From TrEMBL:
Domain of life: Bacteria
Protein name: DUF1963 domain-containing protein
Lineage of source species: Bacteria, Bacillati, Actinomycetota, Actinomycetes, Micrococcales
Organism: Oerskovia merdavium
Length: 253
């Protein structure tokens, strides 16, 4: 099956930044009242992903953008659970987004909502995972998964650069799949807790300077969002047969 792997950069795009997928930062043109609030702690949630439509996300309508938020509160909000209300996914039409930068929600201005360092998708690199349709289905089945050869179960080799991708069957942690979110479901995108950035490590250190939370490892991989320490965030469509996708985020360790 075809999949798409993003390259990441902290260098702002030459194109209109509101048309380029990114991690962290703020969603361009989203009115303050549309930012979702955590159902558990009551604070405006942190933007995690802004995903633009394209061949890598064929379920996202061309005139829409997929926005993913999660609670970054350091308390006990269950951000990993797609039903908890401590994360949220929006499918927003371009018509709803203002052309101008807007005022940010009060929680963002006063620092209660943490913003993540912004990292742009430079390119989307297509490839093929070489799996049959049957193998792909088994990869997302909590029972059949464990009957697959290890070379298929963990073909990603737990390499950070491969654990972030759009399309194909989910690449799991060592715990394999479970039943959250409910089926039917189809993986749209997954992102590892560490992001391999193409810029120099020094430039990355400068980019995140002073945020007090982000970590950069010796290989220059950035860990910024709290994805249960070393977890992976999975964005699923849980209405794959419907005209419009229904987005659901879960975080797995
Ligand atoms: Zn919360």
């Amino acid at each position: 099956m075809q999949l798409w792997t993003p390259t990441w950069t902290i260098t702002p795009p030459r194109a209109d930044p509101s048309s380029v997928s990114h991690f962290g930062g703020v969603p361009y043109g989203l009115p303050a009242e549309r930012w979702p609030v955590c159902a558990q702690c009551g604070v405006v949630m942190t933007p995690l992903l802004c995903l633009e439509p394209g061949p890598w996300l064929p379920r996202v309508p061309e005139d829409h953008v997929a926005l993913v938020f999660k609670c970054e509160d350091e308390g006990i909000c269950d951000f990993w659970d797609g039903e908890s209300g401590a994360n949220a996914c929006l499918l927003v039409s371009r018509a709803e987004l203002a052309a101008q930068p807007l005022l940010l929600p009060a929680d963002v201005v006063d620092g209660r909502t943490r913003l993540l360092p912004q990292v742009w998708v430079g390119t989307w690199e297509p490839s093929d995972d070489g799996l049959t349709a049957e193998q792909s289905e088994a990869l997302d089945d909590p029972v059949r998964f464990w009957d697959l050869p290890e070379a298929i179960q963990f073909s990603h080799g737990f390499q950070t650069a491969r654990l972030t991708k759009a399309g194909g069957a989910p690449y799991w942690t060592g715990n394999g799949p479970d039943d959250d979110p409910p089926r039917p479901r189809h993986l749209l995108f997954q992102i590892d807790s560490a992001i391999m950035v193409s810029d120099s490590r020094d430039a990355l250190v400068e980019h995140v300077a002073g945020d007090g939370f982000s970590e950069i490892d010796d290989d220059g991989a950035l860990s910024a969002a709290n994805l249960a320490l070393d977890g992976i965030a999975y964005l699923f469509d849980i209405t794959p047969q419907a005209a419009r996708p229904t987005l659901r985020l879960v975080v797995k360790r």
